[in-house]
Amino acid sequence: MKYIYSLVLAIFFSVNLFAQQSKPDTAKEDFKDDWAALSHYKKENQQLGEPKPGEKRVVFLGSSIFEFWKARVPDFFAGRQYLDRGIAGQISPQLLIRFRQDVIDLKARAVIILAGSNDIAANTGHVSNQTIMDNIRSMAELAKLHGIKVILCQYLPVFDYPWRKGLKPADKIISLNKEIKAYAEANNFTLLDYFSPLADERNGQKAELTTDGVHPNVAGYKIMAKVTEEAIAKALK
Q: Any keyword Zinc (predicted)?
């Protein structure tokens, strides 16, 4: 009996072990935990490699305004040491999470931080300007710690969000821009004003410069390009 019992146990464990070893690996990579979309530019960053001697990388960190820029006006980025790291729909804490991978690890010489509009649009909840500023301050402090020049943006004018009508964001953006300006001046950061050259009498975007009242068209991006290059020259002088 004892012998038979031992034999049955041995067969059971052998079959179980074989089943475990022969079971195919069906696990698939799941990005649900990648809230900040670190995977978005991961491969592109890896292919980039180290900066070449004399290379002064400038990272454009933001959401759809920057991501669409490269798609609509690719010539602005072609041949320049500019790295577009915009991801549509992102809010300021997501930019903060991405800051190490998409700015610090790329050994950027300067970073342009454009944050706040999606927070104000309440894409994922109601966020105060104080919270936005806390995230901007954290990114600026990280940049400064790593010797990266900081360029802070006064956000583009928006009278109304097509997907979140009735929020009346214009005054909130103006208030946020005042805080960004005061913080930049207090810390000797370069200020990049995207608001003034694009604003109409309602403090929204001029109709001839936008596709939807939020995102610039090609003409709008050409105006942004001019003030952006001026800011980069100032930061890197």
A: no
